[in-house]
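Lab notebook, design round three. We kept the backbone fixed and only want residue identities now. Task for the bench partner: fill in a sequence for the structure below.
Input structure tokens:
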């Protein structure tokens, strides 16, 4: 039986709604800026993980991004086809592949990094360094709290 509307605490300005709106807005701005390169924000996140965890497996990547392996497979297929990523067989697990960024990816990473910094710069306008540091620390604490309870 659905809850009566009067008992639902629906607050569009609550933390969850704001974080979702900020994420969606950032993704939209990023996707527009990177459209000419064919890079989406989802691909950017995957490339960042692979850049810091060279040779990770598809499973490790899906765990790091907290998405289903089938979603990562499709994402990787597009990036392999684009020449940004290569898959190499994992020597100790015939079913797994190690993931590596190619040299063709380097210019895309630089452009995407600049686009991200520009969008974040716009987002941080009017926010002091101290306020930003406090916000990030608080959000990190919230994330850790939620990670511990799941």
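Proposed sequence:
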């Amino acid at each position: 039986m659905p809850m009566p509307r009067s008992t639902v605490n629906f607050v569009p300005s609550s933390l969850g709604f704001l974080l979702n709106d900020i994420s969606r807005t950032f993704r939209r701005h990023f996707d527009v800026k990177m459209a000419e390169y064919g890079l989406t924000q989802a691909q950017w996140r995957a490339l960042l993980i692979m850049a810091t965890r060279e040779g990770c497996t598809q499973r490790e990547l899906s765990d790091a991004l907290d998405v289903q392996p089938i979603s990562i497979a499709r994402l990787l297929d597009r990036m392999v086809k684009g020449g940004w990523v290569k898959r190499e067989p994992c020597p100790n697990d015939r079913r797994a592949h190690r993931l590596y960024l190619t040299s063709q990816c380097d210019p895309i990473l630089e452009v995407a990094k600049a686009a991200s910094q520009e969008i974040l710069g716009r987002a941080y306008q009017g926010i002091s360094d101290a306020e930003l540091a406090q916000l990030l620390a608080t959000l990190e604490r919230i994330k850790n709290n939620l990670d511990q309870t799941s």
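Keep this in mind before ordering anything: The two ends are 26 Å apart (CA to CA).
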